[in-house]
User: What shape does this take?
Amino acid sequence: MSKEIKVLIAEDDPFIGMITKECFESKGFQVFLCEDGNKAFSCYLEEKPDVCILDVMMPLKDGFTLAKEIRSIDSDIPILFLTAKSLKEDVIKGFKIGADDYVKKPFSVEELIARVDAIIRRSKVSLKDVNRQIVFQIGAFSFDSEFHILKIDKDEIKLTDKESEILAELCRNQNEITNRRSLLIKVWGDDSFFNSRSLDVYISKLRKYLKKDLNVELVTVRSKGFKLWTGNKKAFDS
Assistant: This one.
């Protein structure tokens, strides 16, 4: 890789942590390994990693708490959770915090590296292509998909990477149905159950942001997908 990508791994199991670190380093990544959440947060502040891989269950500070602290500073950094827990509620909680991916233990390190590679590729997709619209008008809102800014009057909302990607796709199909599966493939690369639930969480967040303009609606079209409606008629009347 042309630029050495910095990866922060927070994992309290020394064996898993060291094996994962060595495998990532063999692929050209620069890796910072921490055995608890407090050390991981200090490392994040000092080293400014490009990607965070966080174990959910850690001493001193769990992965969810750590992710919230990191997200309060950087809404864009890719975060991937590692967990031995398979409860649906925990997975959904992780995505609500802003996870980009979720990997269950035991896992293949090669698969983990592939997932990190995919996240990095998605985060590097340039929105500066002259043939690609980057600023959209959504009713009274102005949305700059390059800088992830949703603006209405004097109010600005800084969106996360995922929120911005999803809203940009909805804007390109404004007043038309955006197919759910196509949206999942474009944003996550697959249409797995967990990514699908994550999409629902992001749609809910976007819906709340857009409430300030009563003429704008983001509706779920059953069995099809979503429609970002900016006309005077109700979306479900069309």
